[in-house]
């Protein structure tokens, strides 16, 4: 204040104001420091709460897994890290439980140390003889209360055991009192699901047996060996017979009359039904079940018959079936540009030849 020019009163006033400003500045800085410390402590607690693992252990794990290594080694190291973290977490929880137990024990000890001979608020001075007698009375009272507490604990234990028994009996009674007419189909039931699985398995087995029985049924197939002219034959085969198996049986029958078939096998033969070349992996059962149809008639009729209905309607397909042709691949390659081979196409179940209906 040496540079201030004025009266002594004004100089004193200015000094007091400066001291007040300095005091407020220090208080402000102290508050800022405390706020920063509290914020840092809160952030530390948050980091500890969200920290998934020990940073040192994780750094060691990350350093040990750098570079190429086998999956088994990586899994073992990861498992070891998880076990260490689990043990560390268990230690922290045990320490926290021990601290809580210690605090609870300290609190009980302090409560037990309290005197029960507190005089009235108006009495401030007590005679020595009276204080001694009050101390003896407090000791007796404390002992009586401890004995009463032990008896109360025993009664509580007996009551808890009896309550548990009574709760079990009540639950059994509640189970017996369930409404049998209530709809519980929407609730999960292990017994019902097991019965449903067994029923589904039984139905699947019955269905498979029925399909096998149907596949063993015999059908009469009319075919014609085509070498430029037709040579019609008939043969009986099961419905589950594949086309290559059917061609092999036909070849054996035809080889007695047509010598060029003796050195062939089923791979060199083709079966043409309703202007469609049927692949060898199909069975007659597949064509029957899917009710497949060709360009000129149904593929699931293997006999030969004409449509004798008098009513002709372009919206209704004719129920006519033609004999399937058996040809050699060599004959087909030589004549595939000539009718009727020029009309033949490979059977594709995804191709639909108009709407198929039989009235």
Question: What is the fold's blueprint, element by element?
Answer:
Layout: H1 8-50, H2 55-64, H3 71-113, H4 128-176, H5 190-215, E1 218-226, E2 230-238, H6 243-254, E3 269-273, E4 276-278, H7 284-289, E5 324-328, H8 329-335, E6 345-346
Parallel strand pairs: 1-5, 4-6
Antiparallel strand pairs: 1-2, 3-4, 3-5
Provide the descriptors you would attach to this structure in a database record.
359 residues, Ubiquitin-like (UB roll), alpha/beta, 55% helix, elongated, 9% strand
- Decide which structural class fits the backbone: alpha/beta
Number of strands: 6
Work out the helicity level: 40-55%
Described by strand count, sense and barrel closure, the largest sheet is: 6 strands, mixed
- Radius of gyration equals 51 Å
Level-2 CATH architecture of the domain at 217-346: Roll
CATH homology superfamily name of the domain at 217-346: Phosphatidylinositol 3-kinase Catalytic Subunit, Chain A, domain 1
Listing every helix as H and every strand as E from the N terminus to the C terminus, the arrangement reads: HHHHHEEHEEHEHE
Dominant shape? elongated
Strand content: 5-15%
CATH first level of the domain at 217-346: Alpha Beta
Identify low-pLDDT runs: 117-135
How are the strands of the largest sheet arranged?
A: 2-1-5-3-4-6
Instruction: Examine the coordinates and then state which fold CATH places here, giving the name of the CATH topology of the domain at 217-346.
Output: Ubiquitin-like (UB roll)
Distance between the termini: 124 Å
């Amino acid at each position: 204040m040496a540079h201030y020019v004025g009266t002594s009163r004004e100089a004193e006033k200015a000094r007091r104001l400066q001291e007040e400003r300095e005091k407020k500045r220090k208080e402000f800085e102290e508050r800022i420091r405390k706020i920063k410390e509290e914020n840092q402590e809160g952030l530390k607690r948050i980091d500890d709460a969200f920290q998934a693992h020990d940073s040192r252990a994780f750094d060691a794990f990350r350093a040990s897994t750098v570079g190429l290594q086998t999956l088994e080694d990586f899994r073992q190291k990861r498992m070891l890290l998880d076990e260490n973290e689990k043990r560390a977490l268990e230690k922290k929880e045990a320490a926290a439980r021990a601290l809580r137990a210690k605090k609870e024990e300290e609190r009980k000890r302090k409560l037990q140390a309290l005197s029960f001979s507190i005089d009235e608020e108006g009495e401030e001075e007590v005679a020595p003889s009276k204080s001694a007698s009050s101390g003896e009375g407090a000791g007796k009272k404390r002992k009586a209360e401890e004995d009463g507490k032990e008896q109360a604990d025993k009664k509580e234990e007996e009551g808890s055991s009896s309550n548990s028994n009574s709760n079990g009996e009540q639950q059994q009674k509640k189970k017996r009192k369930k409404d049998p007419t209530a709809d519980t189909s929407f609730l999960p039931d292990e017994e019902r699901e097991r019965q449903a699985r067994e029923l589904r398995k039984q139905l699947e087995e019955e269905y498979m047996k029925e399909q096998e029985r149907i596949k063993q049924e015999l059908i009469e197939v009319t075919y014609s060996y085509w070498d430029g002219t037709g040579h019609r034959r008939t043969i009986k085969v099961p419905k589950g017979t594949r086309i290559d198996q059917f061609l092999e049986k036909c070849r054996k029958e035809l080889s007695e009359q047509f010598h060029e078939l003796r050195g062939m096998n089923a791979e060199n033969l083709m079966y043409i039904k309703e202007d469609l070349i049927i692949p060898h992996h199909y069975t007659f059962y597949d064509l029957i079940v899917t009710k497949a149809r060709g360009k000129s008639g149904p593929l699931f009729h293997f006999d030969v018959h004409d449509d004798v209905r008098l009513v002709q309607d372009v919206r209704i397909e004719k129920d006519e079936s033609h004999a399937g042709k058996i040809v050699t691949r060599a004959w087909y390659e030589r004549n595939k540009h000539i009718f009727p081979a020029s009309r033949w196409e490979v059977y594709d179940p995804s191709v639909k030849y108009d709407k198929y209906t039989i009235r």
